[in-house]
Amino acid sequence: MINNFVFVALFLLGFYAILVKKNLIKMVIGLNIMEGAIFYWFITLTDRGGTIPIVNSSQVVTNLNDPIPQALILTGIVIGASTSSFLLTLIIELNKFTSSTNPDQLGGMIED
Amino acid sequence: MNTSLIVLIIIPLATAFAIPFIDVFSNKARKYLVVLSTFVELFVLIIIILNNYRYILNGTLFLKYYMGNWIPPIGITLGMDMLSLFFSTMITFAMVFIVIYSIGFIGHHEGKYYVLLFLIWSAMQGIILTGDIFNMDVFLELLLITSAPLVAFKRNKEGTEAAIKYMFYGTIGGLFVFIGVVLVYYNLGTLNFADISRNFNSLSFFIKKMISIFFLLGIFIKLGIFPFHFWLSKAHSACPSSVSALLSGVIVKVYVYVFIRLFWNVIGFEVLIENGLDKVILVVALISSIIGHIMALNEDDIKKMLAYSTVANLGMIIAVLTLNTKLAIIAALLHVFGHLLMKVSLFTTTGYLLQFTPGHKLEDFKGVAYKNKLLFVGFVVAVGGMIGLPPMIGFSSKWFILKAFINQDIHWGSIIIIVGSIIAFVYYIRFIIYGFKKTSIGTPDKFRLILSVFYRERVVTDIAIFFAVAVIIAGIFYKFALIPINGAAEMLQNPYIYVETILGG
Asked: In terms of residue numbers, what domain contains B108?
């Protein structure tokens, strides 16, 4: 149960950063916090307290943790890393034109 | 087992990775490679259609491929039913012509451009063919991260801003989809579409609602439906016109496909009905439709106007889909097809016409009709389709949409769509009138030298005119498009066919 609260708190923290912070780099960090919250949540949800795979063929294991979430999260981490690095590249590119990282100077994130 | 499905994904992917190596040796070889692989992809698709034409006519086509021979629900399944076939064919044909258009249109950084274009193509085919929910999520992210550099392709301030917005909104949408995937995996222990669909009704009411809401949020953010439509106009207008055509005409259709696949085959539409979400979607989509039209009316910039028109049309498509009758699904899919043709046609023609104007504004459009009369006629044809004049495809699809609304006794919905068409008439006709206005001083040709990025004018005009002709031809022979659409609607009405065919061996 506490895991769900931690997830919601972290997720909203990241969301808060995106909505409120006036710095594009901080907003990217917020995005990363949201991603991290989901990864944390997924790992804790599917943790049965069993042995961690990979298991030797000679070992007899009754309670084995599901390896699929870990594979999914590895993929998710790769996606998250590439997204945020690309976003940071774009912010550097934007800095050449405006010499600012304030999202409001771009016409804001929510207005047209 | 049908290996050609994986080939459809691999050809663009392999081309994308081959282009940088070929580019080192010669630019000419790269051009030949690009054209060659588009036609190989088209060839593979046509072979699939010809081999199975009997099943397509019956509406019972189903091809599948198990990756690495893992029998489902373990492993990734690729499946092609009538819906996938319809979308895959549409996208392949559109991409072939967009690639050829780009050869004439894009004059700088071509190597990078084609790498991204082919990765987008691969991601779109992957989303359409996959039968695994996490695989779909990965392809969605691939589609996002490969289309964002193309938004910033002009390397100016507007493009970079639009790309940043596009990335933020797209990533947040992707996160919501990922939460949905996490909930599905935690509750059902499976990622296979068919397996989820089989077990989904065993979940509790609350979990079902949460999963539907997260998927809806994710897809609506990526589609640009009403509360999230801010980013779309900027992203679809800040890029070169060939990319605008791709984003606004083709990529949004992939998200419509995701919406249909998830909520008809995987989750099941009755879940939305029992949660009362279908009425919410209907209202939100219709609001999105009318707001898109009004924003387009306010807009002076032609490319932004076209982008807002996309918002409006997507709202219309989603609204019709939620009626969930066979006629409604047919109407929506026909409008997906029609809107693809018309929007690509509009962006390809304006992309050419804008080469003669100093800017994108309404006043800049003065006298542009006299620059290339045939092409301007093509522009008028595409506009007529968007407004819904016969014999263009827009007329038949709007007719079906109105019929679907009236059959369900949702008259206010049909009124909104008619009003939207009238608003569309007003905001499109401005540009036609301005185009025919004679200018006292000849429109300065020096701008053309500055702005011109194309060096093969012939290719650009031919493709633009081809799309305009396609709008008319598709409008007259829309019954041929109804063959796959009927089959797709039939299969969506009976989702258990999908489950049985995937899991049945």
From this structure: 4-503
Nearest CA in chain A to B182: A42
Rounded to 10 degrees, what is the CA torsion of B247, B248, B249, B254?
Answer: 60
Q: In this structure, are residues B344 and B245 in contact, taking their beta carbons and an 8 Å threshold?
A: yes
In angstroms, the CA A38 to CA B52 distance is 43
Whether residue B257 contacts residue B83, with contact meaning beta carbons closer than 8 Å, is answered with yes
B423-448 mean pLDDT: 76
Q: What distance in Å separates the CA atoms of residue B91 and residue B41, rounded to the nearest whole number?
A: 11
**How far does A94 lie from chain B, in Å, by closest CA?**
6
Q: CA-to-CA distance for B344 and B332, rounded, in angstroms? A: 18
B132: three-class secondary structure by DSSP: strand
Measure CB to CB from residue B164 to each of A24, A79, A111 and give the nearest one.
A24
Interface test with A, best of B182, B190, B222, B291 (most A CBs within 10 A): B182
Longest CA–CA span in chain A (Å) reads 63
Q: Which two tokens stand for residue B67?
A: 């990756």
> Is the pLDDT reported for residue B76 higher than 60?
yes
Paired tokens of B460: 């650009």
For the CA atoms of B395, B399, B401, B402, what is the dihedral angle to 10 degrees? 130
Q: Which of residues 31-90 of A touch B (CB under 8 A)?
A: 31, 34-35, 38, 41-42, 45-46, 66, 68-69, 72, 75-76, 79, 82-83, 86-87, 90
Token pair belonging to B168: 């933020």
Residue A86 has its nearest CB partner, among B145, B186, B189, at B145
Beta bridge partners of B124: none
Domains of chain A, each with CATH number or no CATH: 2-106 (1.10.287.3510)
Q: Could you tell me which residue, B87 or B369, shows the higher pLDDT?
A: B87
What total of structural domains would you count in chain B?
1
Q: Does residue A51 sit in helix, strand or coil?
A: strand
Contact B88, B8 (CB under 8 A): yes
Please, what is the Cα angle at A95 between B138 and B306, to 5 degrees? Answer: 60
Residues paired with residue B77 on neighbouring β-strands, in sequence order: B66
DSSP-based three-state secondary structure for B79: strand
Measured between beta carbons, which residues in chain B are less than 8 angstroms from residue A72? 134, 181, 185
Q: Residue B329's closest CA among B246, B265, B248?
A: B265
ipTM: 0.94
pLDDT tens-digit series, residues B219-229: 999 998 988 88
Picking from B64, B495, B482, the residue whose alpha carbon sits closest to that of residue B263 is B495
